[in-house]
Each structure stands twice: as structure tokens, then as C-alpha cells.
Design brief:
It is a single chain. Strand 5 and strand 6 form a beta hairpin. Helix 2 crosses helix 12 (about 250-265), helix 3 packs across helix 12 and helix 14 (about 340-350) packs parallel to helix 17 (about 380-390). This protein is an alpha/beta fold. The chain has helices at about 10-20, 20-45, 50-65, 65-80, 90-105, 115-120, 120-130, 140-145, 165-175, 180-200, 225-230, 250-265, 325-330, 340-350, 355, 370, 380-390, 400-410, 415-430, 445-450, 460-470; strands spanning about 85, 110, 130-135, 200-205, 210, 215-220, 235-240, 245, 270-275, 290-295. The protein is built from 21 helices and ten strands. Strands 1-10-7-4-2-3 form a six-stranded parallel beta sheet, sandwiched between helices. The chain has a four-stranded mixed beta sheet with strand order 8-5-6-9, with helices on both faces.
């Protein structure tokens, strides 16, 4: 599936994450920092729960009337001179975008940060078509130079890199000869990227929200790169997930306030950009041609189901920033472009259980993700629903788990087998307890006994104790 960032097995990816001490420390530090800023920014409003409720209502209303608003958006984009393409699949989206690039004889493409283009692996498609693709978000630029390392966080893609690693990447790939001081690294990247903007043939952006009433798209950023991507190239393509839409500018105002405070703890980010079609005659800058590609890629299959609220997501990563599991395993462990609790919910829906059936279990179900979600997605409840579907569908359940459950069913329904099992439990499990030498359990027990002591079953069964009590013993 297009969303996959690794072919390794889930537990192999988890082991890598758990054993990467730098990554774990970086994630823990970033979580505490961003969560602290988010809390201060939301408390300033004084009525944050009312804002969350309003955000939920806006997203719910929009999804319930998605066909209407998408049609309105499409009509208004075209009225402004833009082109609209509805892509049912990632293949259709990539085919359309590469077609435009070939028609414009584009050799160099500059991109601003976009999760949906990562989802459909757009860069690979453009490179196969002969285009040089330049990521202009600083974090994405670093990862692209570092052998196309995938992002590990929705908002902070290079979270798993330290400044020394970034310095070495710049030195190896771009001849950088200065220190690892962040300001020097950023200045070098800015100088490098400036030439790319000036020589680009095509600009590609994502879309935080599209405004149906005016046919506009909005970008919420903290770097000036998105403005240059949309202002300098003669052709601009915006790629948006079909659910990333609001009815009017009034709703956009609310959603942007929720997004900025929840993602980076700011009242507003440095740039809130609204763009409406190609430039008019009196405009100084902007594209001569504008294309909006609206991507489905499995989203319509979620509409009308018990998982529809997952499409409320505004990609703020607040849930990622509080998740204890993400804190220990990192973003790459999820094997999907979407990490954290929202990734554990969305990835099986968009990519299928075959590749992502482990993710719903990568959660403590502490509900911290649900508590911080600015649009009130019941994330921990959706994870439980995923688990139920996996268990109910025998094709999705692991063979070992099915065998174990069948064995338990047989033993628990037979008085004689149950009695024999409870009598032998203490001696059978003794080798795996703290007091003995083996300790490491086999099969599904191993992940537990690798990090915990296995609880030793009592030598005296409840039934034996009860009989003694009835006879007058203690």
C-alpha cells in the first residue's frame, strides 16, 4: 500500500525504536515541550471545551454534507479559472499530476509540506516521470537529503534527528563546512533552497483546509516556504484529502485557531495563507495556472461507518504528543506515514488490516489522545472497535491467537480439563517466573517476559482453599 514506509515486521520496527535511545529522548523532550505549550495556549481561551465542541460540530456537519461542499468547492475553483480533478485512488492522483508536469515540461518541482502527498508517494511518481522534486519544508528537506528518510511525526517530520546528524547530512550531500549550531544550519538550508525556488517550473502544496464558499485553499505554516512555492512557479498544484474542507471562512477561523493551539501551542502560526485560483491581471505574483487535486484513496469507504469520526482529524498531532506508546517506540514503528493514535486508527482504514492489524493494539487505551483531540475524535474507542473487528473476523486474527482461544474454550468448558489445568498451572509456569532461570516465555509470552516478570500462579487453588475453609481451616 502507498502509505507503507517499511516492509519490516511490526515487532522488528518496534525493537528498533525501543533500542534507539536518542530517538526516545528526543521524542520525550518534544512531547513535554509541545504538550506544555499546547496546555498554556488552550487555557488562555478559558472555554477550551466549548471550542472543542464547536470544532467537532463543524467537522461532523461538513462530513455529513461532504458531497454538497465538495461540489460547491469545485464549482468555485473553476469559476476562478482553476482546474479540479477528483482522484479516487493514489494512482489516479499521481497520474494526473505527472501529466500536468509533462505538459508543462517541468524539470524541477518545489513542494511545501504535505501529508497527503506522502500518503500517495507523489515524489516517487514525479521522479519516475523525470522531475527533480525538492522538499522545501526544513524538516522534510533534511529527510530528503538523508536518503529519503520518511517523516516520524505529523508536524515535526525530522523529530528523530539531532543537530549533529543534520550537520553531517548537509556536509555529505551539500558540502556544508560550518558547525551544528541550529541557526547556522537553518541559514545554510535557506541559501540552498532560495535557488531552487527561483528555478522551479512547478509548485506543489498540501491543503490544511479548503473553503467551499470561495473556492480557496488555506495553508497553515511556520516557514515562508509555502508562500514561495505558490508565488514563484508559473503552475501550482494543490493536493488535498477530500475531507479537508470547511463551508465558509468563518468556520476556517475556528478550525485554524484549534489547529495552531493544538499542534504547536501558538495562537496563530507565522503564516496563515489563503489562496484563490490563479493570479488576476493586477496581481504581482502567483501562478498562471492552478490545479486542485482532491484525493479519496479510501476515505469514502469510511463515510457512514462507525469510524467516520476519524475523518474529523485536522492533523494537529496533539494525540501523538501525549501518547505513551509513541513516546517509547517512535513514529517509524507504525510502518505508516501516519503515526501515533490517529495513525493506529487511520492506517488500517486507509491501508487495510493486512498491513496494519497490529496498530490498534499499540495503545495503552489510557484515553489521553481522546482528551486532547481538538475535534473530539474518540480515538481510544475507535481502537477498541478495530480490535473487535479483528477478533470477529477469523481471517484477520493470528493463527496462534486463534489456537490459544480455542484451547482455552475447550479447557474452560470441560470441568475435568479445567481441574487438571489449574492443578498443573503452578508447576508448568514455574520456569518462567522470577525465581527460576529460564524466565523468558515462549511465543506470545516473550514480549511480556522480555520486560516484566511473569506472575507466578499460586500453588494453592481457590477451590482447595475454599474446601479447607469449609472444613474449619483458615
Amino acid at each position: 500500500m502507498a502509505m507503507k514506509i517499511s516492509d519490516e515486521k511490526f515487532f522488528d520496527r518496534v525493537d528498533k525504536g525501543v533500542n534507539n535511545s536518542f530517538m526516545r529522548n528526543a521524542v520525550a523532550s518534544a512531547q513535554e515541550r509541545m504538550q506544555g505549550k499546547r496546555q498554556l495556549a488552550t487555557e488562555e481561551l478559558g472555554n477550551w471545551e466549548e471550542w472543542r465542541k464547536l470544532g467537532e460540530e463543524i467537522r461532523s456537519h461538513t462530513l455529513q454534507n461532504l458531497d454538497y461542499y465538495l461540489e460547491q468547492l469545485s464549482e468555485n475553483v473553476q469559476k476562478r479559472g482553476g482546474h479540479v480533478f477528483f482522484a479516487s485512488t493514489k494512482e489516479e492522483a499521481n497520474e494526473y499530476i505527472t501529466k500536468v508536469a509533462k505538459e508543462k515540461q517541468a524539470k524541477k518541482v518545489v513542494k511545501s509540506k504535505s501529508m497527503v502527498t506522502e500518503e500517495i508517494h507523489l515524489n516517487s511518481a514525479l521522479e519516475k516521470a523525470g522531475c527533480e522534486v525538492i522538499e522545501t519544508d526544513l524538516g522534510e528537506y533534511i529527510l530528503q537529503l538523508d536518503d529519503h528518510d520518511p517523516p516520524s511525526h505529523i508536524v515535526v517530520p525530522a523529530l528523530h534527528k539531532n543537530k549533529e546528524q543534520i550537520r553531517d547530512t548537509f556536509k555529505e550531500k551539500r558540502g556544508y563546512d560550518k558547525s551544528e549550531i541550529p541557526e547556522e544550519l537553518a541559514l545554510f538550508a535557506r541559501e540552498q533552497l532560495r535557488q531552487e525556488f527561483l528555478s522551479a517550473d512547478l509548485g506543489i502544496t498540501g491543503c490544511n483546509f479548503a473553503v467551499a464558499e470561495s473556492g480557496s485553499i488555506s495553508l497553515v505554516t511556520n516557514e515562508g516556504n509555502a508562500g514561495l512555492v505558490t508565488a514563484l512557479p508559473k503552475t501550482q498544484i494543490t493536493v488535498m484529502g477530500m475531507e479537508r474542507i470547511v463551508p465558509t471562512w468563518e468556520e476556517l477561523d475556528i478550525m485554524v485557531s484549534l489547529l495552531c493551539r493544538s499542534s504547536v501551542g501558538q495562537k496563530l502560526t507565522s503564516y496563515i495563507t489563503g489562496l484563490t485560483g490563479p493570479k488576476d491581471e493586477g496581481d504581482v505574483d502567483g501562478p498562471d495556472e492552478f490545479h486542485l487535486v482532491i484525493v479519496d484513496n479510501g476515505r469514502s469507504n469510511i463515510l457512514g461507518t462507525e469510524f467516520q469520526s476519524a475523518l474529523h482529524c485536522i492533523r494537529c498531532a496533539a494525540c501523538v504528543n501525549v501518547c505513551p506508546v509513541y513516546r517509547h517506540v517512535g513514529g517509524h514503528s507504525y510502518g505508516s506515514i501516519y503515526a501515533g493514535p490517529i495513525g493506529a486508527v487511520l492506517s488500517p482504514l486507509l491501508g487495510g488490516y493486512e498491513d496494519y492489524k497490529e496498530l490498534p493494539y499499540a495503545s495503552s487505551l489510557c484515553a489521553a489522545c481522546t482528551d486532547v483531540c481538538p475535534v473530539k475524535i474518540p480515538l481510544h474507542e475507535l481502537l477498541i472497535k478495530h480490535r473487535r473487528k479483528i477478533v470477529e473476523d477469523e481471517k484477520k486474527s493470528p493463527f496462534g491467537e486463534k489456537l490459544a482461544m480455542k484451547g482455552f474454550q475447550l479447557a474452560a468448558s470441560s470441568p475435568s480439563l479445567y481441574k487438571t489445568g489449574t492443578k498443573s498451572a503452578s508447576s508448568v509456569m514455574a520456569p518462567f517466573t522470577k525465581e527460576n532461570s529460564i524466565q523468558k516465555g515462549p511465543g506470545p509470552m516473550k514480549p511480556w517476559t522480555d520486560v516484566r516478570d511473569f506472575p507466578a500462579p499460586s500453588k494453592e487453588r481457590f477451590r482447595d482453599w475454599y474446601k479447607k475453609r469449609e472444613k474449619g481451616g483458615e
